[in-house]
Specification:
The chain has 108 residues and is mainly alpha-helical. The chain is built from three helices and no strands. It has helices spanning 2-12, 35-57, 75-100.
Length: 108
C-alpha cells in the first residue's frame, strides 16, 4: 500500500518528496495492526490502484514521457513497477492462506 501510494505520488506530485527507506515503508517493530488498520489498508490500496488505472486509461497520458521531477523515469515504468510489486505481495498472501488453511471451503 505504501509503495503503491509513493509511486502514485511520484507520478502526479511535482513537489514529490522521497520517502526514507525502510523507515517510512514499514510499521514500527512489534506494532500490532487492528481491524481498522486493515480496513484502511484495503480502502487506500483500492483507491490508489484506481487512480493509477485512470492515469493509464486517460488518452492524454503519454506513458513514455519522462516525469519532469524524476531522474529519467516515465509513467509506464512506474506503473509496471507497481504491478510487479503488487503481484509479489499478493502472491505472498496467497501462500500464507494456503499454509494457514484459511481458504474458503469452495476453493479448489
Amino acid at each position: 500500500r505504501i509503495t503503491q501510494w509513493d509511486i502514485l505520488d511520484f507520478i502526479i506530485n511535482k513537489n514529490y518528496k522521497e520517502l526514507e527507506w525502510p523507515k517510512d515503508y514499514w510499521p514500527e517493530k512489534f506494532a500490532k495492526a487492528t481491524q481498522k488498520d486493515w480496513d484502511y489498508t484495503i480502502e487506500t490500496f483500492e483507491k490508489d490502484v484506481k487512480a493509477l488505472q485512470n492515469i493509464v486509461k486517460n488518452p492524454k497520458t503519454d506513458l513514455f514521457a519522462k516525469i519532469p521531477w524524476g531522474s529519467g523515469q516515465n509513467i509506464l515504468r512506474e506503473v509496471l513497477l507497481v504491478a510487479d510489486h503488487n503481484a509479489y505481495h499478493i502472491g505472498e498472501f496467497t501462500s500464507l492462506r494456503q499454509v494457514m488453511g484459511t481458504w474458503d471451503k469452495s476453493h479448489k
